[in-house]
Amino acid sequence: xxxxxxxxxxxxxxxxxxxxxxxxxxxxxxxxxxxxxxxxxxxxxxxxxxxxxxxxxxxxxxxxxxxxxxxxxxxxxxxxxxxxxxxxxxxxxxxxxxxxxxxxxxxxxxxxxxxxxxxxxxxxxxxxxxxxxxxxxxxxxxxxxxxxxxxxxxxxxxxxxxxxxxxxxxxxxxxxxxxxxxxxxxxxxxxxxxxxxxxxxxxxxxxxxxxxxxxxxxxxxxxxxxxxxxxxxxxxxxxxxxxxxxxxxxxxxxxxxxxxxxxxxxxxxxxxxxxxxxxxxxxxxxxxxxxxxxxxxxxxxxxxxxxxxxxxxxxxxxxxxxxxxxxxxxxxxxxxxxxxxxxxxxxxxxxxxxxxxxxxxxxxxxxxxxxxxxxxxxxxxxxxxxxxxxxxxxxxxxxxxxxxxxxxxxxxxxxxxxxxxxxxxxxxxxxx
Length: 432
Ligand code: UFG
Prior knowledge:
Blueprint: E1 4-8, H1 13-24, E2 28-33, H2 41-50, E3 57-59, H3 65-74, E4 79-82, H4 89-94, H5 96-115, E5 121-128, H6 152-170, E6 175-182, E7 184-186, H7 205-213, E8 220-223, E9 235-236, E10 238-240, H8 241-256, E11 264-269, E12 275-276, H9 277-288, E13 294-297, H10 312-318, H11 326-346, H12 350-383, H13 387-392, H14 394-431
Parallel strand pairs: 1-2, 1-4, 2-3, 4-5, 5-6, 6-11, 7-10, 8-13
Antiparallel strand pairs: 9-12
Helix pairs in contact: 1-2, 1-8, 3-5, 5-6, 7-11, 9-11, 12-14
The chain binds uridine-5'-diphosphate-4-deoxy-4-fluoro-alpha-D-galactose.
């Protein structure tokens, strides 16, 4: 029988590429996403690439334990790949609580429910090279010591690694876990139907390059040219998104086929090839025959000088190896940006935007419904009390009722905000 993999955050950049590779490897996939940081474009692209119009999609928030339980009740899940998390380093510094709450709570819920499945479950967590911080020695192996993270986002990766390890250990064999530490995923699917869709000004290098090349941004700032590297710019291990996605298929299969050597394993997912920012920009211009206006700018706080993977363990143990050249990957990234521009020109991306807007509003409406029902229940409960009981607990009831009324009111405001935001987005799409 076909095995089913749940991909949380499956409509995002990495999640959508992983979904394609899993389907092509013969797995059934359930995609779950709350569309908080992406629209429907990539989900629709996955269906087109794989011809799977029936691909299950659950619009839900993994911070909602009830919803996670219902999801596991609806499908028989053999493995979960957990992507559903916020990922912007700078935003995490400004809003730490939002990051800790969302990234930890969603993962805790997944583990709680997955661990209670009869027959157990396999969990793959998307970790990051960020856990190595500024390494003393490069390339880094899985045994390179982790360093304190420089952002709340990075902290959530380190914490989730520990949470998975501890939970697997305590689960008496019910849970198996794999931590994949990604280096810098870039590029897009060769079909150009899915790729990276940053909201607003991109933080990451390659979307900034492609947007500058197409004229959406004036000039790329290269952050720092005085680093102790061969050309003075930072070095990273840029890995093709399809190569990275395939690593997940290898990891899931390893778990399903009982080939793990430990109940919780860690693998670096990188190429082993350092590339500097300047080398990447030059390679992009050469392979695509376009100019990327760029200038040197001061260092970006929090950047590490150089990091790349030693991928030997993943190569030898999992049998996975990155295969794409940087040039192939940069061609795919450019094809994706051109595809987006073409869609905008013809207005064919409006349907995707409208559908995700609808999902967002429906979700907000569900929340409002719950908050209003809860407020009504509390008022009923209060009305049923005797005058003595009301008097005795007046303060407690005052705050209970106020809180319920405020929650209901906030949830209605959320719907209105979503509608306004959505209308703005659609209108802006037309103007741009
Ligand atoms: N860069 C520029 N100009 C830009 C954007 C980036 O010069 O406009 C440079 C950065 O300074 C860095 C390199 O390009 O030297 C790569 O930057 P990215 O933002 O693309 O990637 P990072 O290596 O900073 O980030 C990656 C992941 C994060 C993770 C982080 C931690 O994308 O999720 O590694 O190491 F948290």
